[in-house]
Structures are given as C-alpha cells and as structure tokens.
C-alpha cells in the first residue's frame, strides 16, 4: 500500500524512535519514520539530536559512516562538520558553506526517544504528519521518573489510530483476549490527551482473582501510558504502548514495562523488579500477538456500524481528527438502526 491509497494519512504528534540506552555518546543511528530515514546521534556531552539523513553538500547519508566528533556530526563523504544548530562548522581543508542540516524536534522521556511529526511534513502527504522540523503544536507530559525495565517491539500492518482504538474497544478484549475489562467512567478529553477509565478482573498466580483499576492515558496517537497499583503486593505496574508509523499502513509497536515489587525485609530489589517486569511484559505481548492477525487483515471503516456499549469508540475517533489537519473530516460513525441506545450513557454494570 502506498501513501496515497492508505485510508488514513500519517498523523501528527510525538512518536517513539528508540530507547535512550541504544544511543550512547558518540553513536549515530538511522531509524525509519513515516516512510523516511531520520538520523539520530548523541554528542560527546550527551546531547541527542535528530536530523534529516542527507548531507546538504552532495547528499551523502549520515547513517552510512557518519561520525560524531565532540559536539559535531561529520559527513562520511567529504568530512564536512555540522554543529548542534545544524550549520556547517568546517571541513578537513577549512572550507565551509551556508547549507544546514534539516533538524527534527526530539525529546527524551523516561529512557525513550521521541521525534515530533508535524502536519504536512510527510513526502507527498500535505494533510497528515511527517518528520519535519516545524514547532510542536503540543509537548509531551513530564517524565514520570521511572525507566522501563523490559521492552518488546514488532510490526503490524496497520495504523497508529487503529492500534490505539483498541484501548476503547472493550468488546474485543472479552472476545479475543478473554479479559473481563469494563469501562468505569466516560473518557476524558483534554486537547491531545484522551483518558480511559477501566477496570480489569483477572487471576494472578499466587494472588487469586484481582480487580485492577486501570486509568489509561493517550498522548496523541504515539504514546499510551498506564499505571496500575497492586495493593495485594504493595507494588506498581507501569506500561507504555508506543505505536510508530514506519511506512504507509505499517506500524512498529513497542511495549515497555516497569514493575516495582517490594520484598519483605529487603524493600526495593532491582532483580525482583526486573523479573516482575519481564513477566508483565509477556502478558502484554501475548495481547498484541493476538491482535496482530486481526490488525494485519482488517479494513479501516470510516463509518463503522457501532452497537450499544461502543460509544467511546465514536468519541475516540472524533478526538483523533485533530491529528490530521487539512484531511477531509471523517463522517460521524454510523450506528445500526436498532442500536440508537449506543449514543446514550451506558447503564451501571455493577
């Protein structure tokens, strides 16, 4: 599928391009984002940068042999060096030129690297997002101060909006995943933030049946964050879901998990937290692996025939429109003629 035939364009927003630990000082890496290469590098002092892949001199690719020299990125072809502001600072023979690197807005949060993709920046897009250098329309929330201890990533033939929509599709969690997850309050919308209130009842080894309150917050279509208290063991589970569009209708989904479980008589123990984080990650990965065959083959419907209990899907889609400035507005989701109750508040399921 090419970009013009995709049912949805690339969205604007912040999207994960990797882990901080994979970019130590002096390292240069190439990542794929919205059908383009983006080059990441970290200076010797620890500053991290994201730039367009090609040298403005004669087009050499920085990811194919480029090096970090102090605070500069050096082209592998002719040795032109570029400073933190993107300007040319010199070359082996002292020559400079006025061309500058195409800078990308990048930030680090909790051990994760994000690049801003603004409207109109994609190649031939003009109506969605792309890894351009424009000023971000909004900022990511402050760091929570905890880095993930366990990571997983995999590709799905889908779009970030489709991946994120699963957070409000409670019917699929019962049918596909066998989880008793229910919405406890209507979603809250605040600009690029969308918060889902839900409760999941499940069984934990050694703990029996446990009911977990799980507020889930979406920060645009590139970051979902969930924090769950585990009163039975006095611990906390934090989960990050990070869908990144790498090509038209291909999304790299990353799961990141940190579990903190105090040990009686010891308190915090890194080895225990790491083991608990890996166990929790496996549960998350099992869910996306169950979703993957469906996402790989489903068709995006601009007017789905929603039924009672799916009102939040319509709210989510209306919220998501803000990430496609200039794209034709999506019609209101359609409802089965006998399902008009789906527009009304749901009765208390308790």
UniProtKB/TrEMBL annotation:
Q: Rieske domain: which residues?
A: 14-115
By its UniProt entry, which SUPFAM superfamilies does this protein fall under?
Bet v1-like (SSF55961), ISP domain (SSF50022)
Gene3D superfamilies membership:
Naphthalene 1,2-dioxygenase Alpha Subunit, Chain A, domain 1, Rieske [2Fe-2S] iron-sulphur domain
Q: A single GO molecular function, which one?
A: monooxygenase activity
Per the record, the GO terms for biological process are: cholesterol metabolic process; lipid catabolic process
Which UniProt keywords are listed?
Answer: 2Fe-2S, Iron, Iron-sulfur, Lipid degradation, Lipid metabolism, Metal-binding, Oxidoreductase, Steroid metabolism
One Gene Ontology cellular component: cytoplasm
Name the cofactor(s). Answer: Fe cation
Q: Keyword Oxidoreductase: yes or no? A: yes
Q: Which InterPro entries match?
A: Cholesterol_7-desaturase (IPR050584), KshA-like_C (IPR045605), Rieske_2Fe-2S (IPR017941), Rieske_2Fe-2S_sf (IPR036922)
- Taken from the record, one Pfam family name reads Rieske
Domain of life of the organism encoding this protein: Bacteria
What the entry lists under PROSITE patterns is as follows: RIESKE
Question: Does the UniProt entry include the keyword Metal-binding?
Answer: yes
Region spans: Disordered: 329-350
Assembly and interactions?
A: Homotrimer. The two-component system 3-ketosteroid-9-alpha-monooxygenase is composed of an oxygenase component KshA and a reductase component KshB.
PANTHER family in the record: 3-KETOSTEROID-9-ALPHA-MONOOXYGENASE, OXYGENASE COMPONENT, IRON-SULFUR DOMAIN CONTAINING PROTEIN
The protein depicted here goes by the name: Rieske-type oxygenase
Q: Which organism is it from?
A: Kitasatospora xanthocidica
């Amino acid at each position: 599928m090419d970009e013009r035939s995709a049912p949805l364009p690339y969205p604007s927003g912040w999207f994960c391009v990797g882990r901080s630990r994979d970019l130590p000082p002096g390292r240069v890496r190439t990542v794929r984002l919205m059908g383009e290469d983006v080059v990441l590098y970290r200076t010797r002092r620890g500053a991290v940068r994201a730039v367009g892949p090609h040298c403005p001199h004669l087009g050499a690719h920085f990811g194919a042999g480029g090096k970090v020299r102090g605070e500069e990125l050096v082209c592998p072809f002719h040795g032109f060096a570029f400073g933190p502001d993107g300007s040319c600072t010199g070359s082996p023979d002292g020559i400079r030129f006025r061309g500058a690197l195409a800078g990308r807005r990048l930030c680090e949060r909790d051990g994760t690297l994000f690049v801003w993709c603004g409207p109109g920046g994609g190649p031939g897009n003009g109506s969605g997002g792309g890894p351009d250098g424009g000023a971000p329309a909004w900022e990511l929330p402050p760091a929570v101060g905890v880095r993930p201890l366990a990571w997983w990533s995999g590709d799905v033939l889908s779009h970030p909006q489709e991946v994120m929509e699963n957070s409000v599709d409670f019917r699929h969690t019962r049918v596909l995943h066998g989880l008793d997850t229910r919405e406890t309050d209507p979603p809250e919308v605040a600009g690029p933030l969308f918060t889902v209130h839900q409760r999941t009842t499940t069984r934990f080894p050694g703990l029996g049946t446990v009911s977990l309150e799980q507020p889930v917050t979406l920060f645009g279509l590139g970051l979902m964050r969930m924090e769950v208290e585990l009163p039975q063991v006095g611990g906390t589970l934090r989960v990050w879901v990070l869908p990144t569009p790498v090509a038209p209708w291909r999304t790299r989904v990353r799961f990141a998990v940190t579990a903190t479980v105090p040990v009686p008589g010891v308190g915090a123990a890194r080895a225990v937290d790491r083991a608990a984080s890996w166990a929790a990650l496996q549960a998350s990965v099992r869910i996306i692996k169950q979703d993957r065959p469906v996402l790989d083959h489903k068709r995006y419907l601009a007017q789905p025939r929603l039924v009672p209990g799916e009102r939040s899907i319509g709210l989510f889609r209306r919220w998501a429109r803000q990430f496609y400035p200039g794209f034709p507005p999506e019609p209101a989701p359609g409802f089965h003629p006998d399902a008009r109750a789906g527009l009304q508040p749901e009765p208390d399921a308790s």
